[in-house]
Amino acid sequence: MTTTTTHSFSLLLRGADVLDDDALEALFEAGCDDATFGATDGNQYAAFHREDSSFARAVMTAIDAVEGAVEGVLVVGISGSSTEHADFIAALNGALAVRCRAGRVRQPEERQALAHLVEQVTPVLQAGEAVSE
Q1: In total, how many domains does the chain have?
Q2: CA pair distance 56, 118, nearest whole angstrom
Q3: pTM (2 decimals)?
Q4: Does some domain include residue 44?
Q5: For residues 27 and 111, what is the distance between their CA atoms, to the nearest angstrom?
Q6: Integer angstrom CA distances of residue 63 from 73, 78, 100, 128, 130
Q7: Is 132 domain-assigned?
Q8: What pairs with residue 45 in β-bridges?
Q9: Who wins on pLDDT, 108 or 16?
């Protein structure tokens, strides 16, 4: 039996207005009922409290749900208060920054690259040991 934990983190968003009624409904239908959407100084965010077996999986499923629910929305960063996951957050922010600097919307190969990153970082989070390439 897999144990789940509630993981708290925020996704920083760019693009289409996620606070539009249709967008909020699409996000809810996509499984984002565990998030609060908002904007501060024109910067949109999604604050999640997601139950999952790992922090990495919680984040990746949230990214997939948000980007898949509203056309034109791109996750450009992640923030979290847990120092336990700081390395994963930094690595994922690096991958997201590369995608944003290129000015691209999410492509299937980028999803594969993010998934590969998760595969590399997850053992570190679970075992506390270095990952070798």
Answers
A1: 1
A2: 6
A3: 0.79
A4: yes
A5: 19
A6: 10, 10, 14, 25, 25
A7: no
A8: 12, 38
A9: 16
